[in-house]
Design brief:
Layout: E1 2-6, E2 14-17, H1 22-30, E3 43-48, H2 55-58, H3 68-80, H4 84-97, H5 102-110, E4 115-118, H6 124-134, H7 149-154, E5 161-164, E6 167-171, E7 195-200, E8 208-212, H8 216-225, E9 230-232, H9 237-240, H10 249-265, H11 270-280, H12 285-293, E10 298-300, H13 308-318, H14 333-344, E11 347-349, E12 352-356, E13 373-376, E14 379-381, E15 392-394, H15 396-400, H16 403-414, H17 429-434, E16 440-445, E17 448-453
Antiparallel strand pairs: 1-2, 1-3, 4-6, 5-6, 7-8, 7-9, 10-12, 11-12, 13-17, 14-15, 16-17
């Protein structure tokens, strides 16, 4: 196992092999006590390991803070003892449990015997059928064709089972946390969870790390130390691509505070939370916080489409409606489903269909507006036969003469894109939902050729 370590403000890092042993290991472990300032402590920038899923839990962590170095050495030692099957099992466990620190990773490695990995379940449909059979759910024969086994499978992570790229993982028992570790509980329902937030300048150097959420007066103190710096919470990247972009430290603290309050009282389904944020399209951080507070008003539906007949069967199951089999041929499923679709007003998201049980969504009618963004365009040509080998800048009329040629090249590149163009590749989900399409091009303006994004 190797870790790429970097220090703040440095582009280049160095690889360190783990576990560290012998005299060299003792010397390295002793250096932890000599490093007191965060800026001097290297952070983990990359990981090479047979267990690929462990990388997510280690990136961004400070190696010489707290007892991380000893933990890292302990983890590496245990990884060397795992067989290929155990490595595959650990990969699946890490996908299921999503540990966010070294301590949790260490706990899961020690408790692999509390999980099972089934390779016979190869799809969500297989998983859903397995769950129905395991829970001894009596499915009326007439409804078997209308049961959405895929959706039944999607939310089962909360019950300790999940379909992963490595197979179907199931937790048999909760992991045991050794009392002798004295490192604090890995899981805690009555303590606030803290998230590590990285703050850096726009070049990505000068990094500092803080634990959030904190009281508002603490945010003011932190803000005095930083100026014009970007904020990022790696642990919750997927959450923050569903809230308005360009948030500051105070706003990210607001979101984490609301999330913490919610987690103190219940387990949160990750997909449901992300789905309701995508469905609501919050325009402000305050609106995003409001959506998180109202988490229990929403439901992620176990349906794959909004076909009236399919939705009718879902509603019958949800409401516990039973009737004699002889009536099934006479039930107007299409009309029944249409009526409940109007009543529930489900909204489609990347994670599935969502409904607000208290205040149904209104029709999503975003006003379409076409914008054209301009960017300076520099055209450079090189001639191999010229000496010295220097570029030639083309501008003005010379650049305009190349407009048609450039447009053809762009059109050729865009053939492989969908009707949304570059918008299909937007990572930020809120922007992805609001921007219908993006197409690059070139525009003539005031005697110059400009890059354009329409």
């Amino acid at each position: 196992m190797k870790l790429l370590l970097k220090k703040d403000g440095q582009e280049n890092g160095y690889w360190m092999k783990f576990p560290v042993t012998g005299k060299n290991g003792s010397r390295i472990l002793e250096t932890r006590t000599d490093i007191s300032k965060v800026s001097e402590s290297p952070y983990i920038d990359d990981v090479k390991c047979e267990v690929q899923e462990i990388r997510k839990s280690l990136i961004g962590k400070r190696l010489f803070q707290d007892n991380n170095l000893e933990l890292m050495n302990e983890i590496a030692e245990r990884l060397e003892l795992l067989s290929e099957k155990e490595q595959e099992l650990l990969n699946a466990v890490l996908v299921l449990e999503q540990p966010d620190n070294m301590e949790q990773v260490s706990v899961f490695i020690k408790n692999l015997d509390r999980y099972t990995l089934n390779h016979d379940i190869c799809s969500l449909t297989d998983f859903g059928k397995f769950l129905v059979k395991e829970k001894k759910i009596n499915v009326p024969a007439v409804l078997k064709e209308y049961i959405d086994y895929t959706s039944i499978a999607i939310d089962e992570k909360k019950d300790g089972c999940m379909l992963t790229p490595y197979g179907f993982i199931k937790k048999l028992q909760e992991p045991v946390i050794e009392a002798t570790q004295n490192r604090g509980a890995v899981y805690s329902s009555d303590k606030s969870r803290m998230y590590e937030v990285m703050i850096s300048n726009r070049e990505g150097i000068g990094r500092e790390y803080f634990q959030l959420p904190v009281p508002e007066d603490e945010i003011k103190k932190i803000n005095k130390k930083i100026d014009d710096m970007s904020v990022r919470c790696y642990e919750l990247d997927e959450l923050f691509v569903h809230v308005p972009p360009f948030y500051n430290l105070k706003e990210i603290n607001q979101v984490l505070t609301e999330l913490n309050k919610l987690e103190m009282n219940q387990n949160i389904n990750r997909k449901t939370l992300l789905a309701i944020l995508e469905a609501e399209i919050p325009e402000t951080i305050e609106k995003a916080c409001e959506v998180i507070r109202n988490y229990n008003d929403y439901q992620l539906l176990p349906v794959n489409s909004l076909e009236p007949k399919e939705y009718a069967y879902y509603v019958l199951e949800r409401e516990g409606i039973e009737f004699a089999k002889e009536l099934h041929l006479y039930v107007l499923y299409e009309e029944f489903g249409q009526e409940y679709l109007k009543k529930d007003c489900p909204r489609e998201t990347f994670y599935g269909f969502v409904v607000n049980m208290k205040h149904p969504f209104s029709s999503l009618r975003l006003q379409e507006e076409e914008l054209l963004f301009y960017s300076p365009l520099i055209l450079t040509t090189y001639s191999n036969y010229l000496e010295p080998f220097t570029p030639k800048i083309i501008s003005g009329e010379g650049a305009i003469q190349l407009k048609e040629h450039i447009e053809k090249r762009i059109a050729g590149e865009m053939e492989k894109e969908t009707e949304r163009g570059l918008a299909e590749n937007l990572y930020h989900q809120l922007l992805n939902r609001k921007i219908i399409s993006m197409f690059p091009g070139v525009e003539e303006y005031e005697g110059e050729l400009w890059g354009g994004l329409r």
